[in-house]
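Figure 2 data, in text form.
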Amino acid sequence: MSETIGGRLRIFRSSKGLTQTKMADELSVKLRAYQSYEGDEGGMGNDKYAILGRMGIDLHWLLTGEERSGSAPIPQAKPQKVQVLDNSGELAALKTQVSMQNTVIAALQDQIAGLKDQVAGQKDQISTLRELADTQKAFLAKAIKQANSASSVLQPSSPV
């Protein structure tokens, strides 16, 4: 028999086959708050005791650890039945789907890598074309300057 309210709360929860998370949901509290109840770290409000009473716990037992005459016996944990399903066919089909999806993903990743290489090559071409355009601009500017110089030399000077 447990000596604390938290211990008896744990016994009750186990007897109902509930997890701490489910009990926290039933009491409309966060998991950590419920864990503090079972750990005797925090007290519950009257509304929580009312919910526990509706869930079937003997509140006298919960609070004192004593059974009242004529009250329901202290709940004992019931063994849980575990049903194992044979889903091997479904599992194999899912594995096949995952394998196919992984193959598609790998192919897409290869395509992306190829496209990245193409983009890098195009960037290199653009850079080369820009350098060529800059060289042509410089050449044209020099040619225009030389043409202007030559035309000023060829112009007759006016008599004074």
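Caption note: The chain has a mean pLDDT of 84.
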